Amino acid sequence: MPSRRKSDTSNPITGLSFEDAMAELENIVEEMEGEQLPLEELIARYENGARLLKHCDSVLTGARKRVELITLAERETVKIPESETGNPDEDNDNTLF
């Protein structure tokens, strides 16, 4: 029998912004460092922190891909006319990237 995956609506972490997830992760770290918690409570918080970290990594990966696509699109659309760069045989430092 194939394993069933929970939908995003059942996982409240996937709805968090990157900033909110990071703030929650920082709170978990502070609680774990500062409080004398029972082992089971520490493990539960560690598990929640691991889920938050995975979410943050996923958000950053998506943002990185978006930036790469924007950069590629800009490189393809931005062409400097030869009249603005001078003679192509001259050694000019007028490159965009």
Which characteristics define this entry?
mainly alpha, single chain, 97 residues, disordered N terminus, 3 helices
Description:
It is a single chain. The termini are far apart. Helices cover 62% and strands 0% of the residues. The protein is elongated. α1 runs antiparallel to α2. With 97 residues, the chain is mainly alpha-helical. The longest helix has 39 residues, at 39-77. It has helices at residues 18-34, 39-77, 82-85. It has a domain at 14-77: Helix Hairpins (Orthogonal Bundle), CATH 1.10.287. It contains three helices and no strands.
What do we call the CATH topology of the domain at 14-77?
A: Helix Hairpins
Topology pattern, helix = H, strand = E: HHH
Gyration radius (Cα, Å) is 24 Å
Q: Report the sheet-strand fraction.
A: under 5%
Average of per-residue pLDDT values: 80
The total of beta strands comes to 0
CATH-level-2 architecture of the domain at 14-77:
Orthogonal Bundle
**Into which percent range does the helicity of residues fall?**
55-70%
Tell me the span between the first and last alpha carbons: 52 Å
The largest β sheet comes out as: none
| Low-confidence runs of at least 5 consecutive residues | 1-8
What global shape is seen? elongated
